[in-house]
Design a protein that fits this description.
207 residues; alpha+beta; two-stranded antiparallel sheet
Length: 207
């Protein structure tokens, strides 16, 4: 065993160093304590790996949180879209009333063109709610003699749609609940159109 004081190599069964007479048993205890107190390479690797994993997880969490916040801000900052009178084109409106029942206090100060867009959206929402099996119902506004017409367009709509089922009841009820606004917006007709045009159209005229 090598003496840590003088550096002399001694037999492994020696009790004292042959060079400086230092007790070798104390040196054995000192060496063992050092090996216990000092972390080995595997422990150092595990400590570094654990810290690295925690750092990566924290970074992923930050990016995920920022992505959620950005999505919420984008959804709340985008204006609602309503149809205009040019076919199915759309223009943004910064603030609109609920689509199914626009309050009269909100509608009364709007220009007729803007009222027509909101009413068309409300009409589309009412029919879509009553027909959840119909996807992608389109809408448009057309000019007619004495005013305008609101149309919903779908491949299932035909010239006999108001003669079969409850669609005519849904449309009539919607007209009755919005009659004052429809009159101010100069709406004279509300109806359905077949998307291809070959199966015709049906409508209710406002009196």
């Amino acid at each position: 065993m090598k003496c840590y004081k003088c550096g002399r190599n001694n037999p492994s069964d020696s009790t004292f160093c042959n060079g400086c007479a230092t007790e070798l048993a104390t040196q054995r205890s000192h060496a063992w304590n050092q090996s216990v107190l000092e972390p080995n390479a595997w422990q150092r690797f595990m400590a570094k790996t654990s810290l690295g994993q925690k750092g990566c997880l924290a970074l992923v969490g930050v990016f995920l949180f920022l992505g959620i916040v950005r999505g919420i801000l984008n959804n709340t900052s985008q204006p609602r879209i309503i149809p205009t009178e040019q076919g199915t084109s759309q223009t943004p409106l910064q603030s609109v009333a609920p689509s199914n029942t626009p309050p009269a206090s909100y509608m009364q100060d709007l220009p007729p063109a803007q009222m027509r867009g909101i009413l068309l959206e409300s009409y589309q929402a009412a029919v879509s709610t009553a027909n959840p099996h119909l996807n992608l119902i389109k809408s448009n506004i057309t000019k007619m003699k004495g005013g305008y017409a609101l149309w919903l367009v779908h491949s299932f709509f035909t010239s006999s749609s108001f003669q079969i089922g409850d669609d005519v009841k849904v449309v009539s009820a919607w007209i009755d609940s919005h009659r004052a606004e429809l009159d101010k917006a100069q709406i004279k007709r509300v109806g359905f159109k077949n998307e291809s045009g070959y199966l015709g159209e049906c409508w209710l005229d406002l009196k």
